[in-house]
Amino acid sequence: MKSEDCPVDQKRIRLYAIHAKFRTNAINTLFFRFPSMKTNRGKSVVVIEGKEFIPHRISPNGLKQYWRCSRYSSGCKARGISDVSSQEISVTQEHSCNTTEADVEQRRALHELKERAKDRSHRAEKTRNLVLDACAAMPDEVAAV
Question: Which pLDDT score is estimated for 21?
Fold first, then answer.
């Protein structure tokens, strides 16, 4: 059956299948835990080998999750693909940003500090004490950044 003879939906499926074949050239496959951090705008963040990935989009058929570097706006081209239900991501393009693990740890500490400040059980604590506790818990190289 030629593509001209197919209904429109079948043409789309074939196009997606062809597109998917060219998108599976993974550089390496890495495992990650489901995200415990969020960006300022509420997107989930996955940290893999000291670099952050955020969700970019979901495939039209709903089976694949596309990821990109959280520093994409500053020019990093890193991309990844994962199954929606999987905990492994295939990195298709490497990072070109200069994010360090200390930057990621600093962001994680800031996220935890914000979550503690939102928590009602810590409302009685002064904000100053929350910040001092968070700074004391950070490694020296992270606190220096």
Answer: 37
